[in-house]
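Two folds, back to back.
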Amino acid sequence: MASNRESYLYNNKKRKRKKRIFAFILLPILLLAISGVGYGAYLYTKAKSVINNSYQPIDRASKREAKVDPKIDDVSILFIGVDDSKKRSSASGTTRSRSDALMVATLNEKEKSVKLLSIPRDSYVFIPERGYSDKITHAHYFGGVSSTIETVEGLLDIPIDYYVKMNFDAFMDTVDALDGIDVDVPVTFTEQNSKDKKGAIHLEKGPQTLNGEQALALARTRKIDNDIERGKRQQLVLKAIMNKAVSAKAITKYSSLMEAVGANITTDLSFNEIQSFLAYATAENGLQVDSLTLTGNDGKDESGKYIYKLDETALEQTKAILQNHLGVGNNNLATDTNETTSDTDTTSDAATETTASNNNNGS
């Protein structure tokens, strides 16, 4: 007998799939620009201008007693990936958009370590803006960034200090600004493009240079296996972007690269605050990153629509890990046993294992 998930996919096979991608490339750019000499001085000025133009603080109540300083405090950042393209807006008849990707980063200043938590877009959670439980992707649709932050804070019981909001155009423009990225494509596949044209992208397995559309297709394709493998492909693409961005031959591309990012990003991080994060990239033991995800099960809400039911035990463990990393809260029931290594993403067990069935595309 087909599972509920299989039935859902079958009945909704004609629905357009959402794009989920997150790319954060300002750190390597700033790392080279910060030297302040020659071309670096120009890049520094350009980076400052891009961030200032993207700076959009929001009026919201903070869970902190006092404002944090990234130079001395442990902080958290919520990355929100959306599709704000003109095509999507005209098709839906509204400028409001759902969040296609949510990632929470906690940064421990003493350890110079980062924990990245991915939150499935269909996670069934309480949305304060609406006063009832719904898919977390709808928090942004109904209340924008502030509603999304409030929802995530309630879900994880941690303060969200900053946000970075990007749309998928930034990802493609970034890759194209770099004149493509070099990737060893792990599997042959066919995928739709950013305009939802079916079968527009076909890639063969093996090393090759990808343009923005091809890189996006590699990062988002999900029908060929499962969420675990898709996550690995996304990491593969992001690392390729980072490698290309810090290469010597990419320096002359930085101006257009920053313009590509700046046109598709908003944040309440100031330029000086972003500079504070350079200490993480230049740490003696290298940048340490733990990748976390939320486990759960496929299900349906009262109306019969697909939802992702989070495992409460694993959620509590994940909350404790993040609270301990941020130095907040009194929840010490779970011990963070993750071992981090330089320039390596690791995944913990019960709290962070991704289920292979989490290949959802519901709205």
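---
second:
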Amino acid sequence: MAVELPNLSEEQKNRLAQRLSMMSHDRADVGQGLPRTTRALVLGIGGDAGAARLEALVDALVYERVIVPIDVEPDPRVTGVHAGESGHNPIDFVRAQTPAGEALAIYSSAEVLSAHRPGARPMALDFRTIGLTALVETGGRVVVNPGTDAVLLPRPAVASLAQGDAWLPAWRDEDLRDLLLAESSAACPAIADVAIVYAGDGLTRVLVSVDRARFAQGEGASSMTAALSAALNAVGANPRLIASADRVEIAPVLR
């Protein structure tokens, strides 16, 4: 028996295609770890204190969603309150303590979430929504996969993702390094070089190399020490460094 197919208009065909596309996407996304995020996380910490992993993860979050745990909404027939009526964001983000302070907790997959918080309900979200919330509620800090191999996303990275900007880590910013070297060596001639490295857990370390011989040849130990102290304070107070790093440690190194 022949079945007569409905005659659809072009508009109806387009709407049907959009719905089928959405259905296909929904079926495929069951909370699994997505490829860019997964590749970033398997990089591990390594000898760079996790800088490469952090950079790759931030790049992945430009394109891929993450999983957040949410509380199941209480039955409005019992509470008398429907979601959104209170005027607050209906998503109650989970927070986790990190060495840098409180951070919003997100997960790379529903499986990782379930292992850390059994029974939690997973919800997929794009990172921009999470980043905007973190800037208001946790000083811009977000932690990925707390409880397992956690990766702390520092404020500058979160702010860039939330605003749709490219993130330039402080340790990749050659202009910043040159600026810090110029300012610090002008204050203390014994300073020979400056290096910026990632030290893990959202900490940026500025290594200030001090020439031991020039330091000893100064007009006096006390005056040279004072000049070095002033230079280190100036490095820590540099506005560009403050803007590009969440937590900063200044470490003088004699050579």
